[in-house]
Write a structure and sequence with these properties.
9 strands, alpha+beta, homodimer, 9-stranded antiparallel beta sheet
Chain lengths: 155, 155
Amino acid sequence: MAEQAQGPPPARSRPERRADALVRLQGDVDLWVASADETGSAYLVPLSFYWDGATLTISTPRASRTGTNLARAGWARVALGHTRDVVIVEGSVETLEIGADRPLEDAHAEATGFDPRAEAQEYVYFRITPDTVQAWRESNELRGRRLMRGGEWLD
Amino acid sequence: MAEQAQGPPPARSRPERRADALVRLQGDVDLWVASADETGSAYLVPLSFYWDGATLTISTPRASRTGTNLARAGWARVALGHTRDVVIVEGSVETLEIGADRPLEDAHAEATGFDPRAEAQEYVYFRITPDTVQAWRESNELRGRRLMRGGEWLD
C-alpha cells in the first residue's frame, strides 16, 4: 500500500539546492535588500539585479536609504525567491560609480530592463560578492541550508 | 482603433491598493522581516504571521538574531507579497512572552500552522502595530504608494 504524502516534500540535497539557487541567480530579476544605518535602523526594499556568474550587481540612488546604508556597511544580506523557496546571499559590497565598468552597466541594464545611467537622479551600482549562500523551502530544509561559506561553495 | 497595451497596467488608486493590501494581510501566511543590531548590521528572514485586523504577530526564538534585533529596536519593517506586488509595513514592536495573551497565541498557531509554545527552544511573540503602510507593483506605482501614515489609513 502506497504511503500518503504528509507535510512538505523531502529535503533537497545540497547539490540540488545549489542547482536551484543558481537557476534563481541566473533567471530571476528581483531580490529583497535588507540594510541598516549606523544606529541600527533596518530598511528593506525590492530591487532588480544582474548576476554575472560570481557577483550580484544592483543599482539605487546614491542618496536613498538603501544606497546610504550599503555604502556605509560595505555588506549586504539579500533574498531571492519566495518565503517558502528562499535563497539568501550575504557578502561584501563594492560601490561602483557610473562609468567605472561599462560592460557591467550594459549587462545590468539588459538584465533588469532599467538603465540608471538614463535617470535624472544620481545612481550608483553596488556589486555584492557572495560570502555565504543559504537555501531552504520548508522547516525540514533548515538543516543543511548552508551552500556557501567564506565565498566557497560547499561540496 | 484600440490602443495596444504597453508597459505595466495603470497605477491602482489608493482605495484599490488598500483593498489589495488588506487581502494580503488577511490571507497571506508569510512575510519578510528586516532587522538590525545596534552596530547597524542588517538581517532578513521569512517568518509566518497572524493579522488580527489591526496588528501583525510573529514569533521567533528569543535568542535568534531577529528576536534580539526586534526586542532591541522596538520597531520593524516587514514586507508581504512579491517584489512586483509588495506591501511594506513599518511599525512599533511589542514583545509578548508566551502565556501573556493566550487567545492571540491560539490565533497565531491556527493562522501559521506553527505553535511556538510546543517548541523546546524558547520563543517569544512580537506584535507589530502598523505606523506606515505602502503598496506598489511596478515603478509607475511608486507615486502614491503610501496608504497609512502615523497609524491612520489615508483617504
